[in-house]
Each structure stands twice: as structure tokens, then as C-alpha cells.
Amino acid sequence: MQRHESLRPLSREHHQTLQIARRLQSGEPDADLRQDLSAHRADLKAHFAAEESIGRQALMQCPDDTILAELLDRMQREHRQIEKLLVEMLDEAGGSATGRRLGELLVAHVRFEERELFNRLQEGCLAGQAGEPA
User: Fold this and answer.
1) Contact 30, 96 (CB under 8 A)
2) What is the residue-wise DSSP string for 11-30?
3) Which of 1, 93, 102, 119 could be joined to 85 by an S-S link, Cβ 3.0–4.6 Å?
4) The domain containing residue 60 runs over which residues?
5) Is residue 3 part of a domain?
């Protein structure tokens, strides 16, 4: 499916996040991985802000779309969980178990956004349609 123009950059950014997530899942976080996480942290913060902004705009256009509201709520909860685990990893309090949890959450989160949230957005409110997607 061709992504809506507002979602394309976010989908491209998901690829980089998945690469880091796979490294987190593969074992003990080393200095290189922590450095990459630190560099990626600002990108993630901007990415989350962009997604949440698009979500708010879509919900204003489709205020009666309860499914979209639930998906956006899940997205925001997961963003906060990711941020919390990222802080643990960067404070070096987090070892391989925290890294694996963060990696698993990142993979599941990207899949959720690509397969559920983004599809709902572009088939509904971003496409200018209110309510249920066709």
C-alpha cells in the first residue's frame, strides 16, 4: 500500500529504528550500541512528536472515530514505555534484559504503527473520510 505523504518519512524512519531494535535483541549492549542509541534518541523524540501531532490532527477531523482514538492512545502509551526503557539503557542501569525488552517493544511498536495505526489514518481521516475505513 502506498503511504500517505505525511506518513512516508515516518515509515522510512521505522527502518532505522528496526535496525537498532534487532541489535538490542541480539545480546549484551556494548559501547557502540549505547552510542547509537544516544544518537538515535533525539530522532526518536522528534519522530514521536510528529506521529502524535498527525494523530491529534486526524482525531480533530474524525472526532467520532473511537477505533482511531484507541489506536492513538496505545501509540502514546508505547511511546512513553520506549522512552522509559531508553533512559534506563542510556543511564547504563539497563543490561541485556532491558535491551531485549526495548528491542522487542520497538519491533512490536513499529509493526503496530505500520499495520494498524497508519492504515487506519490513511484509509480514514488522512484520506478525508470520517468514520470507518472502506
Assistant:
1) no
2) HHHHHHHHHHHHHHHTS---
3) 102
4) 8-127
5) no
Any domain includes 30 = yes
Q: Nine-digit cell at 55?
A: 494523530
- Tell whether 132 is covered by a domain: no
Name the pTM for this structure. Answer: 0.87
Residue partners of 90: CB distance under 8 A and separation at least 6: 34, 37, 38, 41
Total structural domains in the chain?
1
46 CB-near residues (< 8 Å, 6+ apart): none
Question: Can you tell me the distance from the alpha carbon of 29 to that of 111, in angstroms, rounded to the nearest whole number?
Answer: 23
Q: How far apart are CA 53 and CA 13, in angstroms?
A: 16
25, HSE (Cβ side, Cα atoms, 13 Å)? 12
Cell 519522530 belongs to residue = 47
Burial of 126 (0-12, 13-18, 19+ CB in 10 A): buried
The predicted-structure confidence for 109-123, as pLDDT tens digits, reads as follows 999 999 999 999 988
What's residue 115's pLDDT? 94
Q: Average pLDDT, stretch 77-84?
A: 96
In a domain, 133, yes or no: no
